[in-house]
Amino acid sequence: MPKRVYQPKKKKRIRTHGFRIKMATHDGRNVIKRRRAKGRTKLSV
């Protein structure tokens, strides 16, 4: 039986999907902008 795919790690989650990481790239900024426009409560992790 294979192991489960999702093995959560707080640090990995932040470093991959966190706000500051998103703000570091052009595309990441676009993601944040789209989510703001849509009215999302959570913009990123």
Topology:
Blueprint: H1 10-17, H2 19-23, H3 26-38
Structure characterization notes:
The structure is a single chain. The protein is mainly α and 45 residues long. The chain has a single domain, classed as Helix Hairpins, CATH 1.10.287.3980. The chain is 58% helix and 0% strand. It is built from 3 helices and no strands. 0% of the residues are buried. The model has no long low-confidence stretch (mean pLDDT 97).
Task: Name some characteristics of this structure.
45 residues, mainly alpha, Helix Hairpins, 3 helices, 0% strand, elongated
Give a brief description.
With 45 residues, the chain is mainly alpha-helical.
**What is the element string, with H for helices and E for strands?**
HHH
User: What percentage of amino acids are in beta strands?
Assistant: under 5%
CATH class: Mainly Alpha
> What structural category arises from helix and sheet content?
mainly alpha
**What is the count of structural domains?**
1
The shape is: elongated
Label the CATH architecture: Orthogonal Bundle
Q: Calculate Rg over CA atoms.
A: 13 Å
Distance between the termini: 31 Å
Number of helical regions = 3
Indicate the mean pLDDT: 97
